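Researcher: I'd like a structural prediction for the single chain below. Treat it as a standalone chain; there are no partners to consider.
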Amino acid sequence: MTSWGVCWAWVVPYPCRKTSQKTRYHYDFRPWRTRFSWSPFRYKYQGCCGGLLYEWSFWRWSPFGTGNGPWVDTEWKYYSDSTIGSIGNCPFGDGGVIQ
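Model: Treating it as a single chain, here is the predicted structure.
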């Protein structure tokens, strides 16, 4: 990732580009669904990826929490700052696609 920052030459500041590296983990969930959460600041989901079922959450304003939603048969490309552990096998026999 590259961004603009401030560098110093002796005591004189000048604009410069700074580069840092960040690892993100890529998941292709299909299908996926919302899961129940009371928290007004947390979204909670489940999704299938590679034949396994994953559950994850992230922080975002949600005044009424999240409810249990239906399976959504579209692909969701999700990037996480850390790995997400699977909670079992995907409930669909073909690894995730709803027929």
